[in-house]
Design brief:
heterodimer; A: 231 residues; Rossmann fold; Arc Repressor Mutant, subunit A; 5-stranded parallel sheet; 4-stranded antiparallel sheet; 12 strands; 21% strand; B: 492 residues; alpha+beta; Beta-Lactamase; Helix Hairpins; Heat Shock Protein 90; 5-stranded mixed sheet
């Protein structure tokens, strides 16, 4: 991913000066290199110039809001994004996840929690030495960390990729949302199942022939999801 | 459903009463009018027939029977009777001549042959009785009549005696024609009465409809008003009592609507104030929270004079955080914007994790089997459990016993502590916001919102929490949640 593997480079987009300064301070102390922007426009500009490893994005921004920033980034980039949101049960979370965020943190956020989430997201992109697996026209190369469909490379975010890898490790076996939250997001027992659902939707949009009638990533009612070769 | 049935019954009852009253009035009027008409007619018809027949008979008696020779032969008697009956057909004649030796000679003629035995004894006696001739009574014998009904057929029987000796004559006239006429009259009157009743029922129905329709409209409007449609109004037409009532209803509804609008506006503004305030507080708190960790990590290296101040700042920031967090949670419930994020979770795992995450494992005895899977919001279940168990540990002391079981489709989680229990006067208020059990109680580090938030979280699941003192001592809080909220989710 990033050029400097040891020190993750983050871009923090937050409009409130006090929060921005405090989070920058806290994240720097956790060993991150932090660039900051006060608006979405500035953040997008900075993104082009600096290539961070991950973006921490406030939802409530003047001008273009966090969701729009998220959507614009996703048009060209599979960079991990963590949202700073007001409340876990807000509609904000759903909209944020639909616009392509990988995870979210609820304000007031503790530096340690944010750091743990950042590290968990970054770990998803790490390579692992393993073989490849084939599901119909879908080929998952675990050592190269690439996914091809009909020979074409698919652009997956690290979270989508990790979700696909975890599912492909147990083909035909249903994994519950809570299991997936632990495996992919490294969340504790209070993980938000909407993260899984949103990510599965995005993944289906990329790997399925017809996303509305999936043949690869199936929903197992009352349990969760499983990955199967199409019959 | 039940209310509709009740309303329907009441509705018919008023209608029924109107119909019954109308019917009774019509029946009384029709029956009395018909009765009087029938009676008068009957008298008129009968007396006319009777007067004509008896007058004719008297005439015949004078003309023919009186002309008989003394001691007539049976042939003469018979002939005279035939002449009498024949001259004016319609009645039968019986002439009786008592011979000196007591033998009776008869002569009879007419359409209805009858004998002396057909003549009532009382009439025979009256006819035979010789009265004193006085100023008031000019003759020793009079004509008498009676109506009889031998074999169910009505007859007029009359009799008289020739003054100064002669046969006794009886006439016998069938009243069948009159009876048929009167019966026809009675039938017509009955039919008229029935028509009057029918008419009155229809009238009553119409009257009931005119009265009941506005009443029903009023009832519907009142019900809608009760169901919260405060803009319900009635069209006022006419100026009768019902229009007055509708007008009064409209005024009352308008007043109610205004009052409710005022109250909800006031409530809304105070709710908004709390929501805005907690939102505003959160921004500086977010910044504070982020830096307090930095401070906390540096405490060891700080001046011993400064370190306690920093510690205080850190701990109080955390407390303020909790308070604001709880306030926001409460305002979200009040505003109805709280949402469920459902997932299928193993309840035992969830409870264990909740206890584990707060380092309560040593203080809590857990009685739960794995494998109880419920569809609920895990974060909210955690909030409920943390508040119930935390409260039990704080006020009851360890060990706290938590048991999980299912009753039919309800998930039941009981949290029982070992403390003194809850005083009876406090029990109804344990779920109230900021309710302190006693003024002298030491200041707790809780926000005073914990149990109230737990209750709201149970309610949003369609569940409930009850508080009681267990018979073995100690407070017992029981959480009941529907185990499968798929239906609630679909409806949300």
């Amino acid at each position: 991913m990033g050029q400097n593997v040891g020190v993750p480079f983050l871009l923090l987009i937050e409009d409130d000066d006090a929060i921005r300064t405090a989070l920058e301070l806290s994240l720097s102390r956790q060993g991150h290199r932090v660039a900051t922007a006060a608006t979405g426009e500035d953040g997008l500009k900075l993104l082009k110039e600096q290539r961070p490893d991950l973006i921490v994005l406030d939802v409530m921004l003047p001008g273009i809001d966090g969701f729009e920033v998220c959507r614009r980034i996703r048009r060209t980039d599979q960079l991990p994004i963590i949202l700073l949101t007001a409340r876990s049960d807000d509609i904000d979370v759903v909209v944020g996840l639909e616009s392509g965020a990988d995870d979210y943190v609820v304000k007031p956020v503790q530096g340690r929690v944010l750091d743990a989430r950042i590290r968990a997201v970054l770990r998803r992109g790490e390579r692992e030495s393993s073989d490849s697996a084939t599901f119909g026209s879908l080929v998952i190369d675990r050592s190269a960390m690439t996914v091809t469909k009909n020979g074409e490379d698919l652009q997956l975010t690290p979270t989508e990729l990790r979700l696909l890898l975890e599912l492909s490790r147990r083909p035909g076996q249903a994994l519950s949302r809570q299991q997936l939250l632990r495996l992919v997001w490294e969340h504790d027992y209070l993980g938000d199942s909407r993260l899984v659902d949103a990510c599965v939707q995005r993944l289906r949009a990329k790997v399925e022939d017809v996303p509305s009638s999936p043949t690869l990533i199936r929903t197992v009612r009352g349990v969760g999801y499983r990955l199967d070769s199409p019959q | 459903m039940k209310r509709a049935v009740l309303a329907g019954r009441r509705w018919t009852s008023l209608r029924l009463r109107l119909i019954v009253v109308f019917g009774l009035v019509a029946l009384t009027a029709a029956v009395s009018a018909s009765g009087i008409a029938y009676w008068l007619n009957r008298e008129a018809v009968l007396s006319r027939t009777q007067d004509a027949a008896l007058g004719d008979f008297r005439q015949e008696m004078q003309n023919r029977a009186a002309a008989l020779p003394a001691d007539p032969t049976p042939e003469e008697l018979q002939r005279t009777a035939e002449l009498m009956a024949g001259s004016s057909p319609g009645y039968s004649v019986l002439l009786v001549e008592e011979k000196k030796d007591g033998r009776k000679v008869f002569g009879s003629a007419g359409p209805d042959s009858f004998r002396l035995s057909d003549v009532p004894k009382s009439l025979q006696d009256a006819v035979a009785e010789q009265q004193k001739v006085t100023a008031a009574n000019d003759a020793p014998f009079h004509m008498y009549w009676q109506r009889t009904k031998p074999n169910g057929n009505p007859y007029l029987v009359g009799g008289t005696r020739i003054v100064g000796g002669g046969p006794t004559g009886y006439m016998y006239k069938s009243l069948a024609t009159e009876r048929a006429d009167l019966n026809a009259l009675a039938w017509s009157l009955c039919i008229a009465t029935a028509l009057a009743l029918l008419g009155s029922a229809l009238l009553a129905q119409a009257a009931a409809t005119t009265v009941l329709k506005p009443v029903q409209r009023l009832g519907d409007a009142a019900r809608r008003l009760g169901e919260g449609e405060l803009d319900t109004r009635l069209d006022v037409s006419g100026n009768d009592e019902l229009a007055d009532l509708s007008h009064t209803f409209n005024l009352a509804a308008a007043a109610l609507e205004k009052k409710v609008a005022d109250m909800s506006a006031r409530e809304e503004s105070s709710r908004r104030f709390v929501a805005d305030m907690s939102h505003e507080l959160r921004t500086p708190l977010t910044a504070l929270t982020a830096v307090t960790e930095v401070l906390e990590e540096e405490i060891d290296g700080l001046d011993p004079m400064i370190a306690p101040a920093v510690e205080l700042v850190v701990s109080e920031t955390r407390r303020l955080n909790n308070l604001v967090e709880n306030l926001m949670e409460v305002t979200r419930f009040d505003a109805g914007t709280a949402r469920l994020v459902l997932d299928d979770v193993d309840v035992a795992d969830q409870v264990t994790a909740c206890i584990d995450a707060r380092a309560w494992l040593d203080a809590v005895e857990l009685d739960a089997e794995r494998g109880i899977v419920a569809r609920l919001d895990p974060r909210r279940l955690d909030v409920i459990l943390a508040n119930l168990i935390g409260n039990a540990l704080k006020h009851g002391g360890s060990p706290v016993r938590v048991s999980v079981r299912t009753e039919e489709s309800t998930l039941v989680i009981a949290v029982k502590d070992n403390g003194p229990g809850i005083p009876e006067d406090v029990l109804p208020h344990v779920f109230d916001r900021f309710y302190k059990a006693s003024a002298s109680r030491p200041k707790s580090d809780g926000s005073g919102l914990g149990l109230s938030i737990a209750m709201e979280n149970a309610h949003i699941h369609g569940g409930d929490i009850t508080a009681e003192n267990s018979p073995e001592g100690g407070a017992l809080f029981t959480l009941r949640l529907p185990a499968d909220l798929t239906a609630a989710e679909a409806g949300a």
